[in-house]
Amino acid sequence: MVDYRYLQFDADASSRERLLRYLHTVFNDLLLQTQGDVEEALRYLRHLADRYKVFDDSLSLEDFRRYLESQNAIARDTRGHWKLTRKGERIIRTESLDAIFGGLERGTQGEHRVAAAGEGVERLPETRPYEFGDAVSQIDPQSTIQNAIKRAGIEELAVEEEDLQVFETEQLSSCATVLLVDISHSMVLYGEDRITPAKRVAMALCELIKSKYPKDSLRVVLFGDDAEEVSLESLPYIGVGPFHTNTRGGLRLAQEILRKERQPNRQIFMITDGKPSALTERDGTVYKNPFGLDERVVNKTLDEAANCRRLGIPITTFMLTDDPVLVEFVERFTEINRGRAYFSRPDDLGSFVLVDFMRNRRRTVR
Fold it and tell me: Considering the entire predicted model, what is its pTM?
């Protein structure tokens, strides 16, 4: 047994450590808003600290920078500029997961089930009589002994085949998910930042799958004028551009990715706040029309929703607007795909994604 002896509690040091951890959380949020630019995030932090009188003689911005360096969260690149390290990126993902998914009840984070009982590795509390072929490891000894006592009494205790009870099991599913993130200019219009919560949700979902569902896969596709897949490690650095919304292009790339995945279940999560306003022509040019809902763009996009349904790929749309015209479009889109749609605010986005992913209400689409 190891003995620990506490000689003195340093209240100042404890308070300083708490402040450093809090500043690290603020710094990570600033990183998401500055597309991973460490030096710009530090400048914003200095501005906030000056405004709210955070730093004093006992703690300066330079002290905080050294703290980040000691945590291996940042390092200098070959040009001498500060950048995020791999550990720094992982800290942001983990923090996003804790912030968004921290409200889970204890013991539910590991669940990823289909709504059918059968052979599997997840044991349920319910039991049933033993049947030929059941695994011996699934026998419930307590229920089995109770059955034997009821049948023959404790004096003549002997277990027969008819006494055997086995635990029910539940099938566990693996799933391939493509997360589509809208990076059109409307994601930062009117003074509302929608891209930052979208990035945070993507990183939290990434960390959840990597830590809890290692057999699952998560791929991320950005769509603006066109669509492209990005690595999970690049998520802190993505931002919006002067783009339109090529929803059809995003759906096509997602289908191409999912065709190559081996998981039995496939799904698309789409985070967007705007109407489809662009599509890629056969010659590779991009047709754009930001005015109203262009029927040609809309119909081509709806065609892709129908194609996903034929492939058995449900689409869950997280809509960051309540514009009646766009709501009507999303409802049509969802009906054709037989998927789901949520209309949420940026500050509620994580909860919506969490609930849908964890409930795992995937349908067999025919």
Answer: 0.74
